[in-house]
């Protein structure tokens, strides 16, 4: 009898969830010392395998930069481990005898990790670490274009955990990747919480599953260069942030907003640091290649170099160009490059002052990046504080978007939430 692929993928999803649930039931009885030993072994395995996992990710997805993916893997292992290794996450966390309150940490159960193609191995690494640190199991639903490298990363983490004493099946990953399997896993009775990284549709599906979910989707991060900024440093930060792994990190800068009095200096500095400013005809050509008419990204252009994009668009750019910059007169429908671009292309706007920059930043975020990231380069603390009231979860000051955003993701942003939740139940007794 022939079984449909969708049906077999659903069965696999159910099997990995059941295995993880059974294993987590055993892990839930482990001491903090036992869990920490397992997490240490996982971190060491991820660190030691960072390079070949990065190469596998580039080879499979065909985008990004190998050296930068190695850095992401090391960051997701070493830096995350350094931050969480001394946390107490199970059992009695804290006691207050005077108020007669005891805080007690217990695992949630099995975490479902949805993994994107843009940061496949690094995301698998850090989600594995934080899940098991809190006594949970975890099962992964990979992006179909990065299934092999995500499964490989999950296997590295699983084997390390087993060697250190974790029960078999504590980390699982779907190998038959279908939408049906992902949906089945989201609604599986053995899944306690969903940690979703991906496109808006996937994140929305996680939030609509009826289970607790934490998600991160499109960024479309604007960056404002205010008139008091150190221009050379600001441009260096933006070029560094946007070109890291060819722009695939959702916290990377997507639109530059420049204070009018310093426009010429900023343009000159961008050009000096390897940026190429597109003329109006070239903006239209690049728009048609990089974006779809509705503001979505052409998947074939994700994480591509400026020269690949220019060749596809039929334009000539100087050798050594690191970034394409598209001056725009507006945003939204009719201006495709005003939307999120996970590649080496930036939109460029000029604003008359910080107030106009403030409103334009809100408009750009409202397109598809509300709740995500905003960057500002300024030496005026009063102006910086005016930008605190943005519809984002983090504001980065005088630092690259992707690199500063990742640091916050793993250390303060995501992990701060995980520290509060422990991906477990913090009970007050």
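-> sequence recovered:
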């Amino acid at each position: 009898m022939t079984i449909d692929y969708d049906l077999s993928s659903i069965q696999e999803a159910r099997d990995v969830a059941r295995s993880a649930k059974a294993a987590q039931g055993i892990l839930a009885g482990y001491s903090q010392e036992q869990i920490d030993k397992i997490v240490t072994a996982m971190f060491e395995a991820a660190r030691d395998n960072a390079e070949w996992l990065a190469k596998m990710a580039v080879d499979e997805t065909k985008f990004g930069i190998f050296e930068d993916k190695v850095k992401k893997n090391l960051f997701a292992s070493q830096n995350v481990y350094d931050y969480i290794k001394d946390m107490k996450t199970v059992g009695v966390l804290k006691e207050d005898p005077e108020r007669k309150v005891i805080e007690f940490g217990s695992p949630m159960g099995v975490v479902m990790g949805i993994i994107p193609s843009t940061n496949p191995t690094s995301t698998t690494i850090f989600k594995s670490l934080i899940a098991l640190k809190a006594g949970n199991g975890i099962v992964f639903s990979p992006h179909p274009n990065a299934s092999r490298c995500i499964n490989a990363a999950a296997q590295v983490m699983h084997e390390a955990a087993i060697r250190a004493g974790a029960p078999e099946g504590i980390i699982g990953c779907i190998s038959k990747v279908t939408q049906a399997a992902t949906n089945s896993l989201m609604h599986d009775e053995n899944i306690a919480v969903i940690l979703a990284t991906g496109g808006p549709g996937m994140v929305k599906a996680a939030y609509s599953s009826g289970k607790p979910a934490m998600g991160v989707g499109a960024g479309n991060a604007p960056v404002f260069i205010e008139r008091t900024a150190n221009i050379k440093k600001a441009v260096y930060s933006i070029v560094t942030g946007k070109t890291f792994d060819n722009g695939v990190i959702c916290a990377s800068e997507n639109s530059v907003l420049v204070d009018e009095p310093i426009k010429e200096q900023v343009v000159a500095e961008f050009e000096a640091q390897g940026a190429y400013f597109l003329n109006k005809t070239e903006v239209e050509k690049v728009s048609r290649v990089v974006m779809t008419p509705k503001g979505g990204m052409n998947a074939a252009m994700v994480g591509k170099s400026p020269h690949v994009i220019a060749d596809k668009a039929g334009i000539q750019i100087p050798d050594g160009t690191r970034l394409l910059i598209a001056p725009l007169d507006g945003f939204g429908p009719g201006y495709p490059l005003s939307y999120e671009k996970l590649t080496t292309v930036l939109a460029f706007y000029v604003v008359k002052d910080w107030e106009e920059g403030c409103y334009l930043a809100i408009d750009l975020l409202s397109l598809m990046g509300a709740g995500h990231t905003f960057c500002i380069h300024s030496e005026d603390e009063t102006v910086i504080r005016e930008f605190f009231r943005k519809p984002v979860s983090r504001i980065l000051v005088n630092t690259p978007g992707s690199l500063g955003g990742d640091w916050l993701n793993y250390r303060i942003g995501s992990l701060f939430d995980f520290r509060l939740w422990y991906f477990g139940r913090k009970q007050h007794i």
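The CA atoms of residues 110 and 137 lie 5 Å apart.
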